[in-house]
Design brief:
The complex is a heterodimer of chains A (about 400) and B (about 375).
Chain A lengths: L7 H5 L16 E5 L11 E7 L2 E8 L7 H7 L6 H5 L6 H16 L5 H30 L8 H21 L8 E2 L2 E2 L7 H22 L4 H7 L7 H6 L4 H6 L6 H4 L20 H25 L17 E2 L3 E9 L2 E9 L9 E5 L1 H6 L2 H4 L5 H11 L3 H5 L1
Antiparallel strand pairs in A: 1-2, 2-3, 4-5, 7-8, 8-9
Chain B lengths: L2 H4 L19 H5 L4 H18 L3 E5 L2 H10 L21 E5 L7 H10 L5 E5 H6 L21 E3 L6 H17 L9 H18 L13 E2 L11 H10 L15 H13 L4 E10 L11 E9 L7 E8 L4 E3 L8 H11 L3 E3 L33
Parallel strand pairs in B: 1-2, 2-3, 3-4, 9-10
Antiparallel strand pairs in B: 6-7, 7-8
The chains are: A alpha+beta (about 400), B alpha/beta (about 375).
Chain lengths: ~400, ~375
């Protein structure tokens, strides 16, 4: 069925085979993992066929959080969509908003002012940092009691994440769902004194990151749980459409911030971290390097933040203030989990609403790896692998 | 497709556990002279214990779940009031429903609630758990968890701050002390009728025209938006190997379904190795083009890697009932994408090894992103 250029792993595993095909005599146990399980990061379910403790076959099931976002977006006008997409990848709402509004701006051929582009870069990098901190906290929690009671790093990472949420709250008035990006710019400019607070928060996080690295990457038990577990080679990762840190951990040097620059990334230098092992440990190392890089980029943005307006036109208030006659566009940007994109078809019944809007969710592609990486791992590895893929079900199911 | 066809009718399960809990021996023991005085003290002792060690079962489905985690983490620290998070319903006293509950998830929530030992309490955290938030009119979302189980405390917000959650739990403690039970769950049939009435009113109210002084600057796209997203190497492939001369102005080039698999293979061999998107659209007659008939359009995007990364995109147009060759053989990632488009839009992919629903339940009828499927079609009654 598969044609040429296939990775060895994909040749060996066919996820669509019936379980009877594997070993008719084997005494396999079927374990429903999820949809409500603390390690599934939301409401994800997979069926694991176990031979003793070893996984023979894994089948993912999605849709437990399917909320009909794309149908809702067809009903709402362009201006009204931003708060809806906030709730998709709810760990990085800022980047969701940017991916959406950049697609509309591209359709409108709207030039975003330079300060707004730099401000968006700052928000995106802070959000990436917050998202990776949350990943680190929950990942080590998944790995369990071995790491200082399991919740040590969880508590530490949430303490640091709160620093960033405080900054966002001061900027936008909301801790979580910001609605700060709009078509043609941003709604909220940095208030006086916030830049200094960002510096303080960055310094606090930078100072503690080394300690966290020792507690996780440098920890013998962490290494034993992650090294050589859930190996994903670069060919398979590309075939699955996997992007972001997971792809880079498999040795593919690809980052949209550097390769197809948007915002202010063409004026900044982005160092892209890659690893070659493709296992859980490599994915963790890449995310650590990205946190350091985000801190560096935030500082660079604060240094070079230009003056000027933060929106292309007068702030858009009316829901019907934006009209697009026709056109079709896709914009993808680099989120914490990979390429998060928006595909829009404009026109149709009314010029103020899209005819079709599709959100490209990087986590959905990451979960497609499960049938390939799980077989051969043990049940306790399943939790580590799932944690290292860092799926957010809000954007997978939409 | 009539509205009634698209609504999946689920059996209504009545909740018998809505009444306040009473031990079977309680009534007979009340008859023993003097014992009620002793049991009153015992009751108070049990209440004191219950309200000061509220163990939470996190029914965390989405964003509110992250705030629930924040509340349990270092800054707010719910442990201070004896509240710890237990991941199993059998050890928990309070179920905090944090996030949107979909019709696919709702039976699981009910099953978990039934597994919790008495006495138990429920907290609806956030707008989605309370009312379904802005998803409430949509096909997959339960408009309020209180149609499934009795809710003691509602915490509004999207999502509520950790402090708000803490306030809610303090109110629950007061409630336990005062021994006020939760109201019985809302009748799902009645709630559905109320929601339908509310939708009817709000859709009459909607006016898309700006009024009076509120008229403000309109941001308007130029009429002709030329499609410029074609990199030079992709342009060469299209012109030389696929004889595409004129590119349409309103979107990606249109490729006949018979040659689209070949195009994907050619592109993969020339460096476009990453599948970015597969998007199917149902276009009504005369939509997106004045003379066009009813059709499905499937748009594909592949990305090249490294410096100057770009997306090569094309479209395939299908008559209703036709199908398009699957790309699963070329890109393993197409598996989920094609299943999603089949599930939501209704396009069939030839050669897909396992084309079944992915988002909605297997026995769901209809395809929600089909243009004839109503936008305001709450799934009702729900369980």
């Amino acid at each position: 069925m598969t044609e040429g250029l296939q990775s060895a792993r994909r040749g060996a595993i066919d996820p669509h085979l019936s379980i009877r095909h594997y070993d008719a005599d084997a005494d396999l146990m079927l374990l429903h993992f999820g949809p409500q399980h603390p390690s599934t990061h939301g409401v994800f379910r997979m069926d694991l066929y176990l031979d003793g403790e070893v996984i023979v076959k894994a089948t993912p099931f999605l849709g437990y959080l399917h909320r009909g976002v794309e149908k809702l977006c067809e009903k709402l006008t362009y201006v009204q969509q931003t708060p809806v997409v906030d709730k998709n990848d709810y760990v990085s709402p800022m980047i969701n908003e940017q991916a959406l509004n950049m697609a509309f701006e591209k359709l409108l051929k709207l030039e975003v002012p330079r300060r707004a582009r730099w401000l968006r870069t700052l928000l995106a990098e802070l959000q990436r940092l917050a998202s990776h901190l949350l990943w680190l906290g929950t990942f080590t929690l998944d790995l369990g009691g071995a790491l200082g009671g399991g919740s040590t790093l969880f508590l530490h990472c949430f303490r640091e994440r709160e620093l960033i949420l405080d900054l966002f709250e001061e900027l936008t008035g909301s801790r979580f769902h910001y609605n700060t990006h709009t078509i043609g710019g941003n709604r909220h400019d940095l208030p006086a004194g916030l830049a200094a607070k960002v510096e303080v928060a960055l310094a606090a996080i930078a100072a503690r990151l080394g300690e966290y690295e020792d507690l996780s990457l440098g920890h013998a038990i962490f290494q034993a749980r992650t090294k050589g577990v859930g190996t994903l080679d670069s060919d398979l990762a590309l075939e699955l459409g996997i992007t972001g840190p997971i792809l880079r951990a498999s040795g593919v040097d690809h980052d949209l911030r550097r390769d197809a620059p948007y915002h202010a990334y063409d004026e900044l230098t982005v160092n892209v971290a890659t690893e070659h092992a493709g296992d859980c440990f490599a994915r963790a190392s890449v995310r650590f390097a990205e946190m350091r890089e985000s801190i560096r980029l935030c500082r660079a943005v604060l240094e070079g933040l230009p003056e000027g307006p933060i929106a292309a036109s007068k702030a858009v208030r009316l829901p019907t203030a934006v009209k697009i006659a026709s056109g079709q566009v896709y914009v993808g940007i680099e989120g914490p989990r990979g390429e998060i994109g928006t595909f829009v078809i404009a026109g149709g019944d009314t010029p103020t609403t899209p005819y079709r809007l599709k959100i490209r969710a990087p986590s959905m592609h990451a979960l497609a790896a499960i049938p390939y990486v799980m077989p051969g791992a043990t049940l306790s590895d399943a939790v580590a692998i799932l944690g290292s893929l860092d799926p957010i079900m809000g954007e997978v199911d939409r | 497709m009539a509205v009634s066809d698209t609504r999946r009718v689920l059996p209504v399960v009545r909740d018998e556990s809505a009444l306040p809990y009473e031990h079977p021996l309680y009534r007979s023991l009340l008859g023993v002279p003097g014992l009620s005085v002793a049991t009153a003290v015992l009751d108070q002792l049990l209440e004191w214990g219950a309200r000061n060690s509220l163990w939470v079962f996190p029914m965390a489905t989405s964003c509110c779940g992250i705030e629930l985690m924040s509340a349990a983490a270092s800054r707010v620290d719910l442990d201070r009031m004896g509240t710890i998070v237990r991941a199993t319903p059998r050890q928990a006293d309070v179920m905090v429903i944090a996030g949107t509950i979909t019709t696919k998830m709702a039976p699981r929530v009910k099953a978990l609630w039934d597994q919790m030992p008495e006495p138990k309490w429920a907290v609806a955290m956030g707008s989605c758990a309370i009312s379904g938030d802005f998803y409430r009119n949509l096909y997959p979302v339960v408009p309020g968890i209180d149609t499934i189980l009795p809710v003691d405390v509602y915490i509004p917000g999207c999502p509520p701050n950790p402090e708000a959650l803490m306030h809610g739990l303090l109110r629950l403690q007061e409630k336990i002390k005062a021994r006020t039970g939760a109201p019985a769950p809302r009748d799902p049939v009645l709630a559905a009728a109320q929601l339908a009435a509310a939708i009817a009113v709000s859709s009459n109210d909607r006016s898309d025209e700006p009024v009076g002084e509120e008229q403000e600057l309109l941001v308007q796209a130029p009429d002709e938006v030329p499609f410029t997203e074609i990199a030079s190497d992709y342009d060469t492939i299209l012109r030389e190997q696929f004889a595409v001369g004129e590119f349409p102005a309103d979107g990606a080039p249109i490729i006949p379904a018979a040659r689209h698999h070949e195009l994907a293979r050619t592109l993969r061999a020339s460096g476009y190795r990453q599948l970015v998107y597969i998007v199917a659209t149902h276009c009504k007659a005369k939509a997106l083009g004045k003379t066009s008939p009813e059709r499905y359009e499937v748009a594909y995007g592949l990305r090249s890697l490294g410096k100057g990364s770009n997306v090569a995109s094309w479209r395939v147009q299908l008559e209703p009932g036709a199908s398009v060759p699957s790309l699963v053989g070329l890109f393993a990632g197409a598996d989920f994408q094609e299943r999603e488009q089949f599930d939501l839009v209704g396009v069939r992919f030839d050669g897909h090894p396992d084309l079944r629903r992915i988002m909605l339940a297997d026995d769901y009828e209809g395809h929600p992103l089909h243009k004839d499927f109503p936008a305001d079609a709450p799934c009702a009654p729900w369980r």
